[in-house]
Amino acid sequence: MVVAAEQVGKMIITVASGKGGTGKTTVAVNLALSIASADHWPGKPLLFVDADVEEPNAHLFLKPVIQTQEPFGLPIPHVDAAKCQLSGKCAQVCEFHAIAVLGTKVLVFPELCHGCGSCTLVCPEQAIHEEINQIGVIESGQVEGVPISFLRGVLNVGEASATPLIRAVKQRLPAGRTVIIDAPPGNSCPVVESMRKSDFVLLVTEPTPFGRHDLALAVQVAREEIGLPVGVVINRDGIGDDSVDRFCGEHNVPILLRIPMDRAIAEAYSDGVPLVNIQPAYKTTFINLFRRIQQEVQR
Ligand code: SF4
Ligand code: SF4
Predict the structure, then answer these.
(1) Probe ligand 1: pick from 76, 80, 90, 126, max atoms within 8 Å of CB?
(2) Which of the listed residues 78, 85, 120 should we mutate to test ligand 1's pocket, taking the one with most ligand atoms within 8 A of CB?
(3) Domains in the chain and their CATH numbers?
(4) What is the model's pTM?
(5) Is the CB of 101 under 6 A from ligand 1?
(6) Which ligand number lies closest to the CA of residue 83?
(7) Do 21 and 152 form a contact (C-beta atoms < 8 A)?
(8) Which of 108, 189, 208, 231 is the most buried (most CB within 10 A)?
């Protein structure tokens, strides 16, 4: 399959799903492998970003060689009780409820803190200083044998601040590259952060009423709240009902690909083998998916 250079735009595609277990990572990985290995892939390698920082698993399929590891931390406020006059201004400015004045004490909840620095800025007594609290690591590397660079964030076990880590990962995206982002599942803040500044959001779902429910929320977030074009991949097509089809028809959401229920695909997934490695014909399927995405973006 030939993809001409002029057909391969520099796009950022976020692959997301309203809930876990829909095959989101399968789609993201195989889309990346297919278009990066296509003939005439121009210039710089494609960049794959695993933004599912709480449970990153794309490396199991892409097996990148990690070349850099960078600790990532947040500046967490610490209050000097001797200087504090209990004005409460720090608590008032914190939109995350991560600092509170209780009686004669100021309490900081590091697991809620986003490290924004607002409390330090507003403190009239300059009673707050910040100390870096490492919450994870940012890794980058290269997939062997395919022109794919790899970037991911890994949140420390037990840490709750996925959003700042995803934001830091995305700040490292180089310009002028085609990027595939594997977003966390769900529809909360980390997903919104993963989608931001993308050109297109590809939503992977299952053809069931649960799938339809979570898909509707994901469409609401991506299209209505962030204003991005969206398209749908129906995975395990044939297992449920037509509720996803009806939703997409009623809300003008294009269905770009259907992947049938196939035991061989499930076995390959559990073995950590990309779908296109066991069924190479899928490369054409995913390249065509990429073309459909390009068409949707250019509409
Ligand atoms: S803003 Fe400063 S002085 Fe006021 S309660 Fe917070 S730490 Fe204390
Ligand atoms: S740094 Fe920001 S998020 Fe953290 S406690 Fe201060 S105001 Fe709240």
Answers:
(1) 90
(2) 85
(3) 5-63+144-298 (3.40.50.300), 73-133 (3.30.70.20)
(4) 0.89
(5) yes
(6) 1
(7) no
(8) 231
